[in-house]
Amino acid sequence: MSVNQKGNAFALFPLLLFVLLFVGTGLITKDFSSMPINVAIIIASAMAFFINRKVSFTKKVEIFAKACGNENIMIMVIIFVMAGAFSEVAKGMGAVEATVNFGLSMLPPNLLMVGLFIIGCFISITMGTSMGTVVALAPIGIGIADQTDISLTLAMATVIGGAMFGDNLSMISDTTIAAARTQQTSMSDKFKYNFFIVTPGAILTIIILWVITSGNSIETNTQYTYELIKVLPYIVVLFLAILGMNVLLVLSGGIFLSGFIGLIDGSYTGMTFIHAASQGIINMQDIAIISIFVGGLIGLIQFNGGITYLLHFVTSRIHTKKGAEFGIAGLVSVADISTANNTIAILMTGPLAKDIADQYGVDPRKSASLLDIFAAAWQGLVPYGGQVLAAAGIAAISPLSILPYSFYPLLLLGCGIIAITLNIPKQKSST
Prior knowledge:
Blueprint: H1 3-6, H2 13-29, H3 37-48, H4 57-68, H5 71-92, H6 95-105, H7 112-127, H8 130-146, H9 152-169, H10 174-182, H11 187-213, H12 232-243, H13 247-265, H14 270-283, H15 285-303, H16 306-315, H17 321-339, H18 342-360, H19 364-379, H20 386-395, H21 399-402, H22 407-421
Subcellular location: Cell membrane
Family: Belongs to the NhaC Na(+)/H(+) (TC 2.A.35) antiporter family.
Transmembrane segments: 9-29, 35-52, 73-90, 110-138, 193-213, 234-264, 287-311, 373-396, 402-424
């Protein structure tokens, strides 16, 4: 095999620099969130321009810009922006509070942790944000722990578990969007495939929580009020997305339905509705810009031979379809452990995973699911991840103390490994 066929290992240095900026800054400051992702990706992208001196700077700019404007990247960015607008408009008219209270009103007093986990799953899959779910439910978990003998660390781990369930599956989660787009499969197909793989893990988590907390209950006279109509936008978006409607149409419908309900009940005026949508778009600017720069960075790395080298390095150790799936799982796992950001991990490894999947005949629904499953699992386990840090901060406990009770993220890892080992689901490739 020629050198060109083997690629260029040095071309991967900008990617390594991107990771080192996170790890190094985190170790020095003891805060793994101190390095802004947008700054790190710009620094790494700048470094990529200094590789391969045989090519002019102008040519490199053209390659970078073309990769930034890749069709899949641009569609993903549009979906991110639309998802942000929907999330903020729904939140502004009271959908988040209504959804939380709806779930709490259904909470059985003798199954507190089971109920908390199920509510977390429901809220995260409808809201599409694990961080939002943690922030919304952590105070509830603290209240339950304060009034029972249930461990506070168990309550926080349960909240995180429910949050990661939806982060992995939600139709408006940035990880689902990134996984589906990089593997060129529909989000509804990825959802169905992914749901089949992870459901046993959720069921086992419910059983474990029921066994270890049976007998714990709380007597309360708190009345959780909600208007079911305010939960409707989340339900409609989830239902239409599962049916396979184009996600841009689904999100557009969700925005206008949320706005309409807000206008009817007085939550919005015409201008406040527009401003809420604008704020949602602004909230997604970071991830949109990062996605574009990641696309450009990967384009330069690919042009300089980095992707070819990495593909050769990985595939030379892969001899079967099962090996390819473990390779994809391993790549995204390392990326998430390094960056503590599951969306970035998927964006970084998605193109390479697509190449491996194509070469070994891995169903794109399966490769998309594996990317999301392993990224979500590690995101719920690394003590410097945003979700764990948020829960620990709200509860004023050590992030490390939560990990022994992280049942769902561990079972999510197990579900992914079993799905690869036993070739689950056994379905024909989508066309």
